[in-house]
Each structure stands twice: as C-alpha cells, then as structure tokens.
C-alpha cells in the first residue's frame, strides 16, 4: 500500500493531450517543447530549401548558414513564428506549412528565374506588373514548350497533392483548443511585430545591427546574397515610399541656381518623332561573331552617340521614364518602377511642355495599353492620346508580333494628316525577346560564330529583328527628307537584348546577364550602351554626343529642334556639361572621368544634389520649383484617377 501510495504521489508532467490546449495525441510527453523544436526544424528545412532554389548552389547555401547570428538564423526564427501564428489561425498543428511552403518555394523559383534571365532579384514591386508577365507567357511557351509543359504538369500535380494533404490533415490531426491557439498567438504576434518594426532600411536599428542584417540597398544582388532571399525581399517592401533627400525645403529649392533659359519654340515648329526601339543593339559587337550583310547599316551611318541604359535585358519602362521626363532612376530606390509606383498625378514631361506650345502629343505602342501601366502614365505625362493594340488599326505582323514596318506606316500616316505640329513617342514591339530559333521563315542574314546551333539560330532571329528596325529608321529619314515641315527624328534602343546563353557562349559575358555593379566603367559602357540617332531634315545628324543617360535625351532632342526650356535645355544643359551619364552606380563626365559608387560617398557634387532635390520636389514634394523650371505645369495639377 505504501509503495503504491508513493507511486501515486509522484509528479506527472501535465503537457499531455489530456490537457487539450496542446493539440497533441495522448501519451506524448512534453508536447510544448516538442512542438517548438519541430516548428524550428521545419522552418530551418524550408529556409534552406528557399535559399538553395534561389542561389542554385548547394555549397553557397551551406556557407550562408555556417556562422551564428547571421541573417539565415534570424530568418529561421521568423519563419518558425509565422508557422506558429498560422497554426493558431488554422486550428491544427503544423498545417500552416501547407500554405507557407508552396508560397515561399514558388517565390524562390520565380526569383531564381528572374535573376537568371534579367539579372535582378525578385522585388515586392514585381507583383505590380504580374499581369504583364502573364501576357508574355505565349512567347515563353513558344521558346521552350517542353519546359512549359513540365511546369503545367507540376503545378497541377502539386495543387492536387496539396488539396489531398490538406483534407487528410484536417481529418487526422486533432483541433487545437482555444487556450492552445491563444498561447501561440500571444507568442508569435508580438515577436513578428517586432521584426517588422526593424525592417525599415531607412532608419537605424540597434537590434538589426546586432543580428548582422545590413540593408545593402545600393547593390541589390549583394543584398539578397548577404541577407538571404526572405529578409532582402522584406527589406525592399518600404521602397514604395521615397523619403525626402536631406535638406529638402522650399529654401533649398529656392537656392538652386536658375538658368537664364526661357521656354521658346521656332516660328516654324518642327515635328518631333522619338522611336524607342525594343532591345535595339549592335549584335556585331559580340566576340567572334560575323553577321552578313550588316544588320544595322543606316543606324551605323547616322549614329550620333550612344544611350547609356540604366537597365539590362528588360525594364523598358524605366528607360521611358527618364527619356520623357528628364528625371533619373538614380535618385529612386533600387528595383523601383516609377510607372508602377510613383506616377499617380500629372507629372512634367516633354509631352506636357510641347502640348502647351501647341503640339499634338501622341504616343504609339503596338502592345496593350495596360502594359507597364502606360495608359494611365501617358495621361499623367500630358499626351493628347495613346494608340495601342486596342485602338490602332490591325497591324501586320512580322514573326509573332506587330512589325516595325507597320508601326512606321502609322507614324507617317498620322504625321502627314496633322495640321498641328506633332510630338510622337513610339515604342516598338517586334524585336521583343525571347529570340526563339526560326522566328522568321525568310531570314535575309547569315550568322557565323563558334557557338552552339541553338545560340546561332537565336542570334539570327535577333539580327533579323534588328535589321527590320534599322530599315524602319531608314524609311522615316527618307520620308522626312521630302517634307517641307522641319522634322527631328530620335531613335535609340532601350537596353541590350536578353540573349542569355549567346552572351556566355561568345564570351561577351560570364553569365546570362550583366552584373548590376560592374567591375569597371568600361565594362558598364560595354554592357549598357545602345546606338543613338538624333537627326534633323534641316541640319542632319547630331554628332559626337558620346554615351548619354536617357535623362539627357530631352536636352539633345529639343536642342536639335531649336526649342528651349528652363529645365529640359536650361538645367539639364548645364548638368550635361558636368556629366553625360548619371546612373545609380556611376557618374561619368564628358571627358570620361568616372565616379563609381558615388551615392555612398559623404561628399556629393552639389550639382547632383540639386538634380535630386528638383526631381523629388516635382514628383513627391510641394512643387516649389514649378514656376521657374516647369512653368507650363503651374495651376494645372489635378489628381489623375485610374
């Protein structure tokens, strides 16, 4: 009896399913500790899988987790808290994995693909134009049908397995009690809120610093490599908000030196036609490549200089933004897309100014009007109208897309029909990637190069498209030569084409895309220069412009047209005397002197500071500068509703 009493008097752990707050099966001891350890283990496996998919390198992924207090371990804790909190919401232990794992692994896969093809990591803002990615799927499917089929099969199989597993888990695992769910929420919510509070890269955080989470916003590739995919992605969420530059005030804007230049146009107003040719570049620059005949003889003969693209292989809208506004992406958060995030009210552009001087400002693009949010943005830029796939007459196709010849026909037709002077901004579509082999059934060129057959045929498809764009310029020039009205034509490529393996096989690049942070200014020029032509039927081509940022194109175009403006030819003209390239990672003077990583230096040229202040004031601030620099916008700011 005594022995039995002793036995019955022993303390028994109370962490059993008999206390239904734990949600565990009867007889399993210490479920709270076990649940926490399992959650951490699941989080660790999931974070490792995410990094492995994004990096595509097992050794690199292992090294990311080797040292303690690195962002990888912080990410594991955060993921464990997310899993615990979602378990409380769903009411079953570990069922949150069925939501978190598919979502994050899918994002990791998309991030890896974006980095592979475009060179940039996946940003939160990318989801603002997810519809555009869907619109490009037919081209991607045509390029790699078996990969597309495997993805479809995988998605269907994965979703079926997920639905089956979800239903099975709900049947087999006991529901958590209110007490158990509340305990999980009490733990997870405050800690997650704390982590969210330290993610704002614009403010210093002692805790973030101790955890060695260092926002490297000036070099996003390094940011993702150092902090890991999940934390770097979270650090980029605040980029939707642009903070005022240090010292921004009405007094700072008033202190910016005003140019003596005023707004004026010639008595005989010239038509201005700007053609931004999709991915136009000189493919003969590829090492060991011979293309016969020359695919771009007209551009080569008329070339004024080069446009220094801030992008590589994509992100066309960012080049458009600079070319139309004279503002710079260098002063905006890395990875941001002004068309998607920041243009929400009337914004000064060449269209705004020229329309105020009696021009018809028109935009043409043979694609859909919602692509890159162009419909709303062009309205805010002041264009009278925007003709797109929805409003253009049926366009003849060359390959799978509307031809450059058809777009040229439309420009000529509308210009000849207009009694008022016209400002055209045209964005071509025909030579958009991917460049699948045998894109054109009747190629007129030959490619010789010591590369694989697939790469050679892909390059041939690109060269054929470039030749068509070159012929489009030739036709515009020949048409303009016969006109009595003064006509200025600007023609340039938005970025180098996404040729991927062609670059690697020819030795032009080590990877499919150029690095964001180049080893030298010479490399940056080689990987970001596209041919630029600015030509007038009165004076011929502008000459010896060198490489210029798209933000300086308004200056060169209006100067060639004999038009002046306090910002576009005044302020930008003075800025152009100091710099010809203003890029996020590079400043380049007309003499070729380079300043890499200028934004990280303590002392920044006052001229660059004024450039940034003016841009912030007109895009996000109180527009103190409008009366002096953009007089055509005064009393005309009305919120655009879209």
UniProtKB/TrEMBL annotation:
Boundaries of every Sulfatase N-terminal domain copy: 270-563
Membrane topology: Multi-pass membrane protein
Subcellular location: Cell membrane
Keywords for this protein: Cell membrane, Membrane, Transmembrane, Transmembrane helix
SUPFAM superfamilies per record: Alkaline phosphatase-like
Location (main, coarse): membrane
Pfam families on file: Sulfatase
Keyword Transmembrane: yes
TM spans (from-to): 32-53, 73-90, 97-113, 146-166, 187-206
Annotated protein name in UniProt: LTA synthase family protein
Organism lineage string: Bacteria, Pseudomonadati, Pseudomonadota, Alphaproteobacteria, Hyphomicrobiales
